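Quick entry, no commentary yet.
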Amino acid sequence: MTDSITSALKIAASGLEAQSERMRVVSENVANARSTGETPGSDPYRRKTVAFTSEIDRLLGADLVRIKSVGTDRSDFKMEHDPGNPAADKDGYVKMPNVNMLVEMSDMREANRSYEANLQVIKQARELINLTIDLMRG
């Protein structure tokens, strides 16, 4: 069994990894928020989602967070009237991605705050390790 400071570091590191992947997926959604299909009637970009899972680390005796899967949001596409778009159907409507910028910005903010919280845990654990080393020296 490892000490509690090392466990805290590994748990926080797993959170950093998970939130980093989440931010990558949200960034991809934002970048493709206006990506339509290339031909009339073709589907545009479909929003991606992230699912987390808890994984037991038997050596640590603690739960770590992991990405369970990166899936797709199966909600309907929005239709937008844009007759000049190459992806427009015969009536001039284009299927637009099912990306809602308010949801993406909210997800990005939450992922960023979680990332910062895990980073703070790592900083505090490092500080405790340094204090312990200083105490042992003197």
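second:
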Amino acid sequence: MSVSAVLLGSEDIAKARSVARDFLTSLQAVHGLPVWKHTMGTVQLVVSELVTNARKYAPGPCLLTLEVNDGAVEVTVWDSSTTLPLVLAPDPSRVGQHGLEIVMAVCRSFEVHREPVGKRIKTAIALADESDGCGTA
């Protein structure tokens, strides 16, 4: 199960969050997979941060793909820039630039790969965690 969307402008950041929300809702309603409320918000946050960075730092479109694999939602964002993201060390006195720091803190995994054209950032967020207690969406 997967879904992809080509995003062309900064107004598509809201569209990206909507694609994520609709995908997770479908996983639960149509496919019967448990999706915790916490996961719904976390995936939308990760999608928003990654797509925002792609729109801000890369020319041209970006591609968002959401896929279920091994009990997790894999969020992949491709963009045309070959410049790898700079993940700054945590610094509570720094104003701004905490997006990737937050993404890395809430995801099961975080990978960055250069592509023949651009780069691909891939994260994974658990669909459900029995010890979580957040309940299904």
